[in-house]
Design goal:
mainly alpha; 4 strands; 10 helices; two-stranded antiparallel sheet
Length: about 280
């Protein structure tokens, strides 16, 4: 699902370089995995930097996940899923869904309302027994779409999400702490929100940068160590190690710059929310 962390930083870096102001989609007619009826699926092929200014940024949710057409429903059988997972069903899962009461009770319709699609997406994924990592991301999609439609329900999901954020391995520490603050605020726990916002502001990128580079360099050096140990090709290993070190020196400034931009983006979100709380506003 939705990517976070360094990817946000990379896209943020592209902010000033991309001039596109349109979200570009491709549409495909593909057979529903349950009833084989053709279903229209829209897929993202391009967008501009404006997407990082949209309100869904406060959930760290961006296109295509912030769009209503990210949730697809087959009008004939009622099977509903995200565009990313719509066709990813095993034969056992297909049989499980066909036997589900909420599937058998479905009345065919050509254009189900979006709230209906959201509810069915939840029902389908609960039936499929999705793991905590899935819900840690999908809950944020639900919260974004429900913020204005059903604030009380969004707050309830936010409370559940607070217990799941640790299960999303794609979140950097600063992103995780920011979301803890935002969802505490959304759930009405203002003291906890203030504490987490303050904590998020103090999270430094230096440790994460060091770990990122250490892991990257380790992945490069490990095969060289194997070559040294297995074939005793010391000159070759020393030469390749030099290449790895030079590459690290060349890429470190770029990695740091991108992570720094990501931090500045998150700090902007934090400042917005702190000001909102000071003004006693909802969002």
């Amino acid at each position: 699902m939705v990517k976070a962390g360094v990817i946000i930083a990379i896209l943020w870096l592209m902010w000033g370089r991309c001039e596109s102001n349109a979200t570009l989609l491709t549409t495909d007619l593909q057979p529903c995995p349950i009833c084989r009826t053709d279903v229209l699926v829209k897929r993202l092929v391009g967008y501009g930097p404006y997407v990082f200014k949209e309100p869904s940024k406060y959930d760290l949710i961006f296109v295509p996940h912030s769009r209503e057409d990210f949730i697809v429903t087959c009008g004939k059988c009622g099977y509903t899923q995200t565009t990313e997972d719509f066709f990813k069903l095993s034969d056992a899962q297909k049989r499980q869904l066909k036997a589900a009461r909420f599937m058998m009770d479905w009345k065919p319709t050509m254009a189900p309302a979006f709230p209906v699609r959201l509810d069915r997406a939840i029902a389908v994924n609960e039936l499929l027994g999705r793991d905590k990592e899935f819900w840690a991301v999908f809950n944020r999609v639900l919260i974004w779409h429900l913020r204005e439609r059903d604030p009380a329900r969004a707050a309830r999901i936010a409370r559940r999400e607070l217990d799941l954020l640790e299960h999303d391995p794609r979140l950097r520490r600063k992103e995780r702490v920011y979301l803890q603050a935002e969802y505490s605020r959304l759930a009405g726990e203002m003291d906890a929100a203030t504490r987490f916002f303050t904590k998020a502001q103090g999270v430094s990128i230096n440790w994460e940068l060091s770990m990122t580079l250490l892991i990257a360099n380790g992945l490069c050096v490990a095969p060289l160590a194997l070559v040294w140990w297995r074939w005793r090709r010391r000159r070759l290993v020393l030469a390749l190690t030099g290449v790895v070190l030079i590459g690290s020196l060349l890429t470190t400034p770029r990695v740091y710059s991108r992570m720094k931009l990501s931090d500045e983006y998150l700090n902007g979100l934090i400042r917005d929310r702190v000001e909102m709380m000071k003004g006693g506003l909802d969002g």
